[in-house]
Amino acid sequence: MAIPITVLDCDLLLYGRGHRTLDRFKLDDVTDDYLMSMYGFPRQFIYYLVELLGASLSRPTQRSRAISPETQILAALGFYTSGSFQTRMGDAIGISQASMSRCVANVTEALVERASQFIHFPADDVSMQALKDEFYGLAGMPGVIGVVDCIHVAIKAPNAEDLSYVNRKGLHSLNCLMVCDIRGALMTVETNWPGSLQDYTVLQQSSLSRHFEAGMHKDSWLLGDSSFFLRTWLMTPLHIPETPAEYRYNMAHAATHSVIEKTFRTLCSRFRCLDGSKGALQYSPEKSSHIVLACCVLHNISLEHGMDVWSSPLTGPMEQPPEEEFEQMESLDLEADRIRQELMLTHFS
């Protein structure tokens, strides 16, 4: 006797013939507390994302029914903030785990397409000066327009032969370069670098470095820790401070640079798919890098909507590969060293 088997077509559910939507979940049917606990964001923020991404998530096809943009966004937020395709998450919005995976892919690409809209340096001189003033007000470090650092995000092994993503702890990861302002808003995000690359190599090869080397922001600089080389546009701490001015410089540097450390902790706390607590991202390096970038876009959008970057409950810092020995990181750039010495003499003596 033949046993009938029902095969669910995930593409049929997702896109739909005649573009009718599958709406098993309504935002108006649940409380704000439920949305925050399940998806990590309030109702008005989700409505904004529906308006922002709706056109990209409503591509008509020849199939019969589609999952609505609203449901796709909830599925993606559920994954970003929990780090897993839990059965209860799909059940809550009425879709399968396979459909959830497709929703995450669609929403991720829609957010990546809009990354430059939300992640960028200020375009005008007034805003750049405001950045400097805000950083100076924090710890007395002049001329700073951003703090830079790298963070590793664990991914599955691309294949047995490819060791380029194996970091110094022997784990597969992406080494992601980011720059933030004093509020924790990200102004540069590069998520595609293999985990085997050391931080200074990532920066050296980055578009961020080319941008600053071209002299786009004269009389301004970023702050980076001792895993980077000193540059005319990148101030690093002294490895062995000796004078009172050098100690004061290092203290101001550390207080200012801590902004991006807090930003990393908040990013990983809000988007648990990045912190490794539920395991590595189970995607190719390219797709994983897009997920990281999508979370960074959402981070900046949340700031624009008044969600304090420090409002998420902070966990301990994500465990990172050990940093390099710092002795070799002192720069041979004489002009950069002159600028740092002048900075200490003028502002910290």
Automatic annotation (TrEMBL):
Natural source organism: Rhinolophus ferrumequinum (Greater horseshoe bat)
Coiled-coil region list: none
Keyword Nucleotide-binding: no
Locations listed in the record: Cytoplasm; Nucleus
DDE Tnp4 domain location: 148-300
Chief localisation class: cytoplasm
Cofactor(s) demanded: a divalent metal cation
Gene Ontology molecular function, alphabetical: hydrolase activity; metal ion binding; nuclease activity
Family to which the UniProt record says this protein belongs: Belongs to the HARBI1 family.
UniProt protein name: Putative nuclease HARBI1
